[in-house]
From TrEMBL:
<dbReference type="InterPro" id="IPR003594">
    <property type="entry name" value="HATPase_dom"/>
</dbReference>
<dbReference type="Pfam" id="PF02518">
    <property type="entry name" value="HATPase_c"/>
</dbReference>
<dbReference type="InterPro" id="IPR050980">
    <property type="entry name" value="2C_sensor_his_kinase"/>
</dbReference>
<keyword id="KW-0418">Kinase</keyword>
<feature type="domain" description="HAMP">
    <location>
        <begin position="195"/>
        <end position="250"/>
    </location>
</feature>
<feature type="domain" description="Histidine kinase">
    <location>
        <begin position="270"/>
        <end position="475"/>
    </location>
</feature>
<keyword id="KW-0597">Phosphoprotein</keyword>
<keyword id="KW-0843">Virulence</keyword>
<keyword id="KW-0460">Magnesium</keyword>
<protein>
    <recommendedName>
        <fullName>Signal transduction histidine-protein kinase/phosphatase MprB</fullName>
        <ecNumber>2.7.13.3</ecNumber>
    </recommendedName>
</protein>
<keyword id="KW-0472">Membrane</keyword>
<dbReference type="InterPro" id="IPR004358">
    <property type="entry name" value="Sig_transdc_His_kin-like_C"/>
</dbReference>
<dbReference type="InterPro" id="IPR003660">
    <property type="entry name" value="HAMP_dom"/>
</dbReference>
<dbReference type="InterPro" id="IPR005467">
    <property type="entry name" value="His_kinase_dom"/>
</dbReference>
<keyword id="KW-0464">Manganese</keyword>
<keyword id="KW-0808">Transferase</keyword>
<keyword id="KW-1133">Transmembrane helix</keyword>
């Protein structure tokens, strides 16, 4: 799994342990610095105290010999002092006169008697009583010999700081290991706790995703029993919402089935009327042929009547098959496909005494979903016939452009109500109307959303509604991310 570089986009199960680790690292660094600083101060204080006591006793022992400038006795005192020294492994002792000339040193080869003390060491005679160089691992301490305004000289000690620095390094390693262990332990504990806290959210996210994919399922009772706090209440509310959605989907399906059955009933009645009307004339023509078939004129008129009647019945049957049976070339719509709808609404138009004005300027074929378009237009035409008063006109105008097909259905009724217009304009996303009212418009909206089309609704000030469907061609249909 690849996470983006933005920390805000990281999962909580990762962010929280990282924050815990970061805080522990900061706290551990602060504590380590404090401990090391306190250790260094304590070591320096102890070293200053021990060095001061050691050099103070040496100054008392060296004062008589330095007053007589007895070099050998001075050497003897330094030698005994160096052998008995326990202050941070004293490596060098130097006794000088007030002018920094060497009187005696524990290493006479490096610092001969009567020579001037090197400037680097002479600087320690005028500075603090203790100077530490951590980089080189050494410390210098000095003490005046003699009292009064005219001191007899100085004693300078160079001490090895390696043991003390080793103690500091050991303490530092211990702190680093301890802090790292505690940080990893707390980060792991934080990860486990956050994963446990987020488990209900993951369960809820999984079932919400199922709803988004079209499967409404309640959260099982075993998950609710495990969560007795706020998440338990959230799960129960989610189940109540899922039950309401399932009930709504069932109601939608039932209303859709009822609307479909009602539409099929009207169409079946219309088809029966359109088929039954020419049947009487066909039977009359057959009877005439049986009685007067020898007469050429009678035979010609009768066969012509039979042909027209059979063609009319064929048109009605073919129109029903085109609309309600998915043909092999369902991806295209032709002008003849729209013209066939006249036969399916002819009975409704006659029953309502409305006139059909047909203005179909479509070419032979357009690359749109022909089945969905015919179903939408058929629903709107039937609604227009029912909404129009007797003697009014229902108009269909169909044109094409480079973008797709534009079909307008116009009636002279009182005007489409606002709530019904919203059902159609929402393209099937608005809630279903109560009692099944407007379900046909809701179905048209769903089909329109399926083909990626648009709708424009115009209601005149004195009544009348014009609904224009715009259906893009298949290659121009907008593609939406899931």
């Amino acid at each position: 799994m690849t996470w983006p570089l933005r920390p805000r986009a990281w999962p909580l199960a990762i962010t929280v342990p990282l924050l815990v680790a970061g805080l522990m690292t900061a706290v551990g660094s602060a504590i380590s610095s404090s401990v090391l600083a306190r250790l260094a101060d304590d070591q320096e204080a102890q070293l200053r105290q021990l060095a001061g006591a050691h050099l103070g006793s040496l100054a008392v022992a060296l004062a008589p010999h330095l007053a007589r400038q007895d070099v050998w006795e001075t050497f003897d005192v330094l030698d005994h002092a160096r052998q008995a020294a326990s202050v941070a492994s004293t490596r060098l002792l130097i006794v000088t006169l007030p002018d920094a000339f060497v009187v005696a040193a524990s290493d006479p080869m490096a610092y001969p008697v009567g020579t001037a003390l090197p400037p680097a060491l002479a600087a320690h005679l005028d500075g603090a009583d203790l100077a530490i160089d951590d980089g080189r691992g050494v410390a210098w301490s000095h003490r005046l010999i003699g009292t009064g305004d005219a001191p007899l000289g100085h004693i300078l000690a160079e001490m090895d700081m390696a043991p003390l620095l080793a103690v500091r390094h050991e303490v530092l390693r211990t702190l680093v290991v301890t802090n790292a262990g505690l940080t990893l332990l707390l980060a792991a504990v934080g990860y486990g706790l956050v994963a446990r806290l987020l488990r209900p959210l993951r369960i809820l996210d999984a079932y919400v995703e199922r709803i988004r994919s079209g499967s409404v399922e309640p959260i099982p009772a075993r998950f609710i029993a495990e969560e007795s706090s706020e998440f338990g209440r959230l799960f129960r509310r989610f189940n109540a919402m899922a039950a309401a959605m399932a009930e709504r989907e069932a109601l939608s399906a039932r209303l859709a089935d009822e609307e479909k059955l009602a539409l099929l009933g009207r169409l079946a009645s219309g088809m029966a009327h359109e088929v039954n009307n020419p049947l009487g004339g066909l039977l009359t023509a057959v009877d005439t042929l049986q009685r007067h078939g020898a007469d050429d004129a009678v035979r010609h008129r009768s066969t012509a009547l039979l042909e027209r009647g059979l063609r009319g019945i064929g048109h009605v049957v073919r129109a029903a098959l085109v609309v309600y049976k998915e043909p092999a070339g369902a991806g295209a719509l032709s002008a003849a496909d729209l013209d066939d709808l006249q036969f399916l609404i002819a009975h409704e138009a006659q029953r309502r005494r409305t006139r059909l004005i047909w203005d179909n300027r479509m070419p032979e074929s357009v690359a749109v979903d022909g089945t969905a378009v015919r179903q939408m237009v058929l629903n709107l035409l039937l609604n227009a016939c029912r909404a129009s008063p007797p003697g009014a006109a229902v108009v269909l105008a169909a044109t094409t452009s480079a973008m797709g097909v534009s079909i307008t259905i116009r009636d002279e009724g009182p005007g489409l109500p606002m709530d019904m217009a919203e059902v159609l304009a929402s393209r099937g996303t608005a809630p279903l109307p109560q009692g099944g009212r407007g379900l046909g418009l809701w179905t048209v909206g769903r089909l329109l959303d399926r083909v990626g089309g648009g709708v424009d609704i115009e209601v005149g000030p004195a009544g009348g509604t014009a609904i224009t469907l715009t259906i893009p061609q298949a290659e121009r249909r907008p593609r939406h991310a899931a």
